[in-house]
Specification:
286 residues, single chain, mainly alpha, 0% strand, 69% helix, 10 helices
């Protein structure tokens, strides 16, 4: 049996994708935690240069260095303590050295990444579309949690994602190339216009530039025809959640709510079910 035949089996491909997705989820936890800190360090260095001051004391801090450790006691996480989901369950959600609680977000991100990869494998079957869809899902997961934590959507994720969508659609993986190019441009311009209309009307900024870039990336992947669905779904869910938080007095009216998670969620809906949802709508509308 050839390697292609082996992975061509739906059950095998789905299982392998789930296991690989769990491992990627462990890496996503590192990205979610460290990337904003890396951005902050870069900004501090730039600000110091603009002020004519010496840069902060250099220290190696990136996605690989230093090694992962317990924030409470500094215990270095071993390989056996870093097995996705399994280690968290074996350690009962606590550090093996000091007993400090490990955030439940870590296994949640791992589980989401694994489940997303498995669904992509099942939905598309073995091929470029499935692998590309996994990448899209993993980026959406990372952007969602980063935006929730910091209200930032890093260019180091959104811009490569945009270019990757255009390259994939050179061969029409998810949309034809003209539709992808128009989707990228329209995705950016739609939210850019909303931003300026809101600012001119209220004097306040209603969203960040990262939201423009994220919708542009989604448009590059899925084409312009999916943008109305993405915008409608993200706006509806965002409005319901925002009103709910205000009604429950868990968030004031003036406290900003990140829009990136709703765009990401709507992008995933459009990726998997967009064509069927649009077809059903047109069937009822016409």
């Amino acid at each position: 049996m050839s390697l292609l035949d082996f992975f061509g089996n739906a059950s095998v491909f789905t299982t392998v994708a789930a296991l690989f997705g769990l491992a990627i989820g462990s890496f996503l936890n590192v990205v979610i935690h460290r990337l904003p800190k890396m951005m902050e360090r870069e900004w501090q260095t730039q600000c110091a240069a603009l002020r004519g001051e010496p840069p902060p004391a250099p220290s190696r801090y990136n996605l690989a260095t230093p090694a992962s450790s317990c924030p409470g006691c500094g215990h270095r996480i071993t390989a056996l303590e870093n097995i996705p989901l399994v280690s968290y369950l074996a350690l009962r959600g606590k550090c093996s050295a000091c007993g400090a609680a490990i955030g439940v977000r870590y296994p949640i991100v791992e589980a989401l990444a694994g489940a997303a990869a498995a669904y992509c494998a099942w939905h598309y079957g073995f091929g470029v579309a499935a692998l590309a869809a996994m990448l899209f899902c993993w980026c959406m997961i990372a952007l969602t949690f980063i935006d929730v934590d910091t209200q930032l959507l890093p260019d180091s994720i959104t811009l490569p994602l945009l270019w990757a969508g255009l390259l994939l659609n050179l061969r029409g993986t998810f949309a034809d190339l003209p539709s992808a190019v128009i989707g990228a441009v329209a995705g950016y311009l739609v939210l850019w216009l909303v931003y300026w209309l809101f600012k001119l009307a209220t004097g306040k900024e209603g969203m960040g530039f990262g939201d423009f870039k994220l919708l542009a990336a989604i448009g590059a992947w899925l084409g312009w025809k999916m943008l109305p669905l993405v915008i409608l779904a993200s706006s509806l869910v965002g409005a319901v959640v925002g009103i709910g938080l205000i009604a429950l007095a868990r968030r004031g009216r003036d406290v900003p709510i990140p829009f990136g998670p709703y765009l990401a969620g709507a992008g995933l809906i459009a990726l998997f079910w967009g064509p069927s949802l649009i077809a059903r709508y047109l069937a009822y509308a016409l």
